[in-house]
Write a structure and sequence with these properties.
Structural class: alpha/beta
Number of helices: 13
GO molecular function: 3'-5'-DNA exonuclease activity; manganese ion binding; single-stranded DNA endodeoxyribonuclease activity
Mean pLDDT: 89
Number of domains: 3
Radius of gyration: 24 Å
Protein name: Mre11 DNA-binding domain-containing protein
Organism: Trichoplax adhaerens (Trichoplax reptans)
Family: Belongs to the MRE11/RAD32 family.
Cofactor: Mn(2+)
C-alpha cells in the first residue's frame, strides 16, 4: 500500500476519520491473509510533517493492534542492519528485537508529506521506528550523492532484495540520476538469484523538464518497482520494455484532491514472490469514501446563456448532481464502515457567455447528503485553440512575472534578489542555504529552522 495520508481533513466533522478507517482496513486484510509476511508502505504515511497527537495516537493504536503478536515471522533477515537502519538509535529489525513480539512487521519509506526535517533531520516515522512499531528505511544522509543498500531477506528458497529511497525533491534527484551520483549496491552472493524490488516516492508523471523521475533512470536489474506518491491506483504491474522491469502503482488509500485519478477505485495488493517470479493479488478497499466526478458543458444543454435563464441552469445542474448521488447509493460496497455521504464533483464548462452561479449557496441544499457541499461544483472555461497556440509559443520563452507568480518558489525569489542587487549580497550565508531555510519554514512549519541555519 502507499500514501495513507493519516490525518487528512482530521478537523472536518464528516471526513475527519476517513484516513484512519481505511488504514485499519489495510491491516485487517493483511491479518485475514495469513500468508502475509510483512506490510510494505510506499511513503506519505502521514499527511502532515507534524501530525497531531490524535493522528499519531490513532496510528499507534492500529499498529499495536495488528502488528504485535506471538506468531513468528518466517522471513530471515540477512543484510547488515546497522547499514539498512543507520539513522535509528536502535538499528535492529523489530521482529528480531528480543524486547518485542512482532507478528506482522511493517517496512516504510518516507514521502514528501512526512519527510524528515529540523536540526536532527527527524520525522514522525522516526518516532514510530524508535518505538519499535515500524522499520524505517530509505533515508539518505547526503544530498550530493546517494548510495542505496538493499534489505536482504530469505524465506525458503526465495531471496528478496528490497531497495528503498524516501522522497527527495524531484529536481535534485533528477540531477543526481543524470550525473550518475546514485549507486545501487547489489548482493555479493548469488547476485542473479535475488528478486529485486525498489520502493520510490516521486513524481512518475512528467510535470516539467526535471520535475519527475523517468523510469529509465532506475537500474535495469530490478524486477519490480513499487511507485508511491501518485494517487491513482494502477495496481496491475505494468511492463516497461526499455528497462525490463514491472511497475506497480498502488495509489492512495484516501482521496486528498477532487480529481479524476482519485475517483478511481482504491486498492491494496498482496505480492507473492517465488524465486524470480511473482504474482500480484489485487484487493479493492471497501471502506474508502465513495467519490464520483463528472463534467457538464452548458453549451450542450441547449439552455440560453441569458442571465434570465439562471434558475433553469441551476435546476439542470441539480438534476445532474442528484443522479450522481443516486449512483453512489446504488454502488455502495455494503460495508458498515464505508461512509454513506459521497464526495461529488461536477466540473461545469461555462464557455460561451454563461455566468457562473454561487456554488457555495448551491451546495447548501446537499448538506447531510454529500461530504463536500462547499465545493461540489467547479466552474471552468476551456481554452480556445488560439489560447493553446499562444501558450505553446511562449512555453520556452521568458515569461513575465504576472504569469509565473502562481508557481514561483520562495527560494528562487531569494536567490534572484541576492544575485541581482549587490547591497543584499550574503556575507556569511549562501543563497541556497537561506532559500532552503525559508522553504522549510513555510512548508514544514519548522519555526526554528532559520535560527539553526544562521
Amino acid at each position: 500500500a502507499s500514501d495513507c495520508h493519516l490525518g487528512y481533513k482530521e478537523k472536518d466533522p464528516i471526513r475527519g476519520h476517513d484516513s484512519l478507517v481505511t488504514f485499519e482496513e489495510v491491516f485487517e486484510i493483511a491479518k485475514e491473509h495469513e500468508v502475509v509476511d510483512f506490510v510494505l508502505l510506499g511513503g506519505d504515511l502521514f499527511h502532515e510533517n507534524k501530525p497531531s497527537r490524535a493522528t499519531l495516537h490513532g496510528c499507534i493504536e492500529i499498529l499495536r493492534k495488528y502488528c504485535l503478536g506471538d506468531k513468528p515471522c518466517q522471513v530471515e533477515f540477512l543484510s547488515d542492519q546497522s547499514v539498512n537502519f543507520w539513522s535509528s538509535s536502535f538499528p535492529v529489525i523489530n521482529y528480531e528485537d528480543p524486547n518485542y513480539n512482532i507478528s506482522t512487521p511493517v517496512f516504510t519509506i518516507h514521502g514528501n508529506h512526512d519527510d524528515p526535517s529540523g536540526s536532527k533531520n527527524l520525522s514522525a516515522i522516526d518516532l514510530l521506528s524508535s518505538s519499535g512499531l515500524v522499520n524505517y528505511f530509505g533515508k539518505t544522509s547526503s544530498v550530493d550523492e546517494i548510495s542505496i543498500s538493499p534489505l536482504l531477506m530469505q524465506k525458503g528458497k526465495s531471496k528478496l532484495a528490497v531497495y528503498g529511497l524516501g522522497s527527495v525533491r524531484d529536481e535534485r534527484l533528477h540531477r543526481l540520476f543524470a550525473s550518475e551520483k546514485i549507486t545501487m549496491l547489489k548482493p555479493k552472493m548469488d547476485t542473479d538469484n535475488w528478486f529485486n524490488i525498489m520502493v520510490v516516492h516521486q513524481n512518475r508523471v512528467k510535470h516539467g523538464e526535471k520535475n519527475y523521475i523517468p523510469e529509465e533512470f532506475l537500474s535495469d536489474f530490478l524486477d519490480l518497482v513499487i511507485w508511491g506518491h501518485e494517487h491513482e491506483s494502477l495496481i496491475t504491474p505494468e511492463w516497461n520494455p526499455k528497462t525490463n522491469f514491472f511497475v506497480c502503482q498502488p495509489g492512495s488509500t484516501v482521496a486528498t484532491s477532487l480529481t479524476e485519478g482519485e475517483a478511481k477505485r482504491k486498492h491494496v495488493a498482496i505480492l507473492k514472490v517465488f524465486n524470480k517470479t511473482f504474482k500480484v493479488e489485487e484487493i479493492p478497499l471497501n471502506t474508502v469514501r465513495p467519490f464520483y466526478i463528472d463534467e457538464l458543458c452548458l453549451q450542450e444543454t441547449g439552455i440560453s446563456c441569458d442571465e434570465r435563464h439562471e434558475q433553469e441552469i441551476v435546476s439542470y445542474v441539480k438534476k445532474k448532481i442528484e443522479s450522481m448521488i443516486s449512483k453512489a447509493e446504488a454502488e455502495h460496497s455494503g460495508s458498515t464502515r464505508q461512509p454513506t455521504e459521497p464526495l461529488i464533483r461536477l466540473k461545469v464548462d461555462y464557455s460561451g457567455g454563461y455566468i457562473p452561479f454561487n456554488s457555495l449557496r448551491f451546495g447548501q441544499q446537499f448538506v447531510g447528503r454529500v461530504a463536500n457541499p462547499k465545493d461540489i461544483v467547479h466552474f471552468y472555461k476551456k481554452r480556445t485553440r488560439r489560447e493553446i497556440t499562444e501558450m505553446e509559443s511562449i512555453e520556452n520563452a521568458e515569461l513575465p512575472i504576472s504569469i509565473l507568480e502562481r508557481t514561483v518558489k520562495i527560494e528562487n525569489i531569494i536567490t534572484e534578489l541576492l544575485a541581482n542587487d549587490s547591497s543584499y549580497q550574503m556575507k556569511f550565508l549562501s543563497e541556497k542555504a537561506i532559500g532552503d531555510a525559508v522553504r522549510i519554514f513555510v512548508d514544514k512549519e519548522e519555526n526554528d529552522i532559520i535560527e539553526e541555519y544562521v
